[in-house]
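#struct-pred
JK: can someone run the complex with S-adenosylmethionine? inputs below
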Amino acid sequence: MLNCPIDGLILECDNNSLKCAHGHSYDKAKQGYINLLTVQNKRSKSPGDSKEMVAARQSFLASNIYKPISEKINQVALSHTETLATNILDAGCGEGYYLTQLEQAAKKEELETNLLGLDISKFAIQAAAKKSKNIQWLVASNRQIPIADQSLDLILCIFGFPVFSEFKQKLTTNGKILLVESAENHLIELRELIYPEIKPYQQNNYQEALDLGLTWGKSDTLSYQVELNKEQLAELLIMTPHIHRANREKLEQVKKLDKLALTINVNFRLLQIK
Ligand SMILES: C[S@@+](CC[C@H](N)C(=O)[O-])C[C@H]1O[C@@H](n2cnc3c(N)ncnc32)[C@H](O)[C@@H]1O
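RT: done, structure tokens with the ligand placed:
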């Protein structure tokens, strides 16, 4: 179900590489992932999250602080797994935490899924590929998803960058998009410490998605409290954009804290074709 990112033709397996009928060839990396990111979709030498951000996110997520988020994603995703081998893409999968958790949950419930994870960051996909050999990991962009049109039953976009025109094209007629995003009070205690003022919260209505004919389905919110230790706090600051926008002095003060109690507050919204 993979397409050549240059001409859109089907990619067929040819030993350890994938080839289209025009002869464009893509090697499978020894870790098992495939790089299908074209130069046109690469706006810098190493687009997406850096090696340092990926390492920080990997360590933070491994402590299972966001496990309730992952469990909620699994619940929604597996309730859509009605047909055999449901095709699910995590678009902007990072280092693969959520998709590998979903793989395990599906296995436990004996549900057959075909899981794909893509990210524009090579470092993220290299880390993800080490976690599971059963998931198809791709270095690619949400702006050009190298997967056959109308082949995906569910697209997960978790704290990511949705490209709705592309997502819609890849979905089956009953396909859905699950958007997982920060809600009003997500990490509010940290934001209050590092920003001079907190802007009023406004949920994005994604008019561009509605203009494409997508409609809002079920939505849900998760809220819980955690206490981060010094290391987890440092990792959180590296893996989020906060470190770039925060007040430097305040940021240094936060880095000195031994612990911080935080609110985790996340929205789950489904978009569907009709
Ligand atoms: C905030 S992180 C979230 C990662 C993962 N979903 C998670 O929650 O752990 C955003 C991710 O989107 C990736 N990204 C940025 N632009 C992208 C694009 N155009 N296409 C695909 N991935 C992209 C980054 O490399 C990064 O891994």
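RT: quick notes.
The chain has a mean pLDDT of 94.
The pocket of S-adenosylmethionine is lined by residues 48-49, 57, 92-94, 97, 119-121, 124, 141-143, 158-161 (CB under 6 Å).
JK: thanks, will look after standup
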